Amino acid sequence: MIEAKNINFHYRHNKNDFMINDVSIEIKPGYMTCLLGSNGAGKTTLMSLIYGILNPESGNIYYEGKPVDKKTQQAFHRDVAYFGEKWCANNLKVNENVEMLSLLYPSFEKKLFDKYMVLAQANDISDKKFEILSTGEKAKVETAFLLARTPKFIILDEPLANIDPVFKTDILQILQRSVADNGTGVLISTHLLDEISEMVDYIYVMKNGQIVKQGDRFELLGDEDGSLKSILL
Amino acid sequence: MNINVQTKSGLPIYEQIERQIKDMIIAGVLKEGEMLPSIRTLAADSKISVITVKRAYEDLEKEGMIYSVQGKGFYVDNPDLQYMKEKKTVGLEEKLGEWVDAAKASGMSREEAMDMLGILWD
């Protein structure tokens, strides 16, 4: 399990505040956890703090009970995949990108990548240059690549933004498949609950750098229905 | 295993799953001792959340329809099938009784009612 405990962070850039205020969240293996909040709520900042792109002012990230520090960070990054940085080189074909990136990750398996690309209905784009792909196709390639490493956890920062609705389903499909096959723990952020509501197990609602609501799908509902209605942001 | 879930049908999804599995067990489609798909596999196949399936399986286990083996999975139990079949029929009889009363109250004749039943059945 990945745990963020009492994370505090404050950074001001131009006139923008990037602030995280005493946030604690858990990413459980084998479940899909959603970080829900409108743009500017702090989702990207929090995910950057969890993954280690940013360092908190106070509080810690724990992986399997131990704090993530210089000694343990390598193992952490081996086991945890992050969707949000641009891994692929634009002028290379998809295949060439995959070959290049696979050198960085010993656990990467090409046949898994191919399997996820098929499941995501994207197997016909391997020969194309990355830069000519649509946003959705790029997201499929990057997600398939990350999952082909068989990570224990995957953190996705708004992976479905600006993507064709049909493609959204494909990407969620391969995430769920990884959860089913490998017990992957997924943390996914969005500002639109509807697009992932059926698959989500746990939710953290974020506003102004704080968690304002949290629970499993049944708790956040308030009645017995088990289907998520709109949660006031 | 083919589970059909309708997300906007008004009936909670975990209940839909429970009913369909129960029906399959009663009908003999799922046989005693048969292993059910894992919670995560069913969730991924039906595109619904893991804890929704978990809840359905746990409810079915409480009702004695299925049982779990630590480290292995869930299996079809041997519920009192005759009792379950009767319970289902009694439920249907009650519903039919209500409908008959309503039909009579609306002035429908026996023949008209039988016709309606015939049409709806097909």
What can you see in these coordinates?
Chain A has 233 residues and is an alpha/beta fold. Chain A has helices at 43-51, 73-79, 94-102, 110-119, 135-147, 165-182; strands at 2-13, 16-27, 32-36, 58-63, 66-67, 80-83, 153-156, 185-190, 202-207, 210-216. Chain A has a 6-stranded mixed β-sheet with strand order 6-7-8-3-9-10, with helices on both faces. Chain A is globular. The model of chain A has no long low-confidence stretch (mean pLDDT 90). Chain B contains 5 helices and 2 strands; from the N terminus they run αααββαα. Chain B has helices at 13-26, 39-46, 50-62, 81-105, 110-121; strands spanning 66-69, 73-76. The mean pLDDT of chain B is 88. Chain B has a two-stranded antiparallel sheet. Chain B starts with 12 loop residues before the first helix and ends with a helix. Chains A and B meet through helix 6 of A and helix 1, helix 2 and helix 3 of B.
Are there runs of chain A of 5+ residues with pLDDT below 50, and where?
none
In total, the number of strands of chain A is: 10
CATH class of the largest domain in chain B: Mainly Alpha
Q: Helicity range of the residues of chain A?
A: 25-40%
Sequence of strands across the biggest β-sheet of chain A = 6-7-8-3-9-10
Briefly note the CATH topology name of the largest domain in chain B. Answer: Arc Repressor Mutant, subunit A
Q: What about the largest sheet of chain B?
A: 2 strands, antiparallel
Largest sheet of chain A: 6 strands, mixed
Structural Rg of chain A: 17 Å
Q: What portion of the residues of chain B fall into strands of 2 or more residues?
A: 5-15%
Structural class of chain B: mainly alpha
Q: How would you spell out the order of helices and strands of chain B?
A: HHHEEHH
What general outline of chain B do the C-alpha atoms trace? elongated
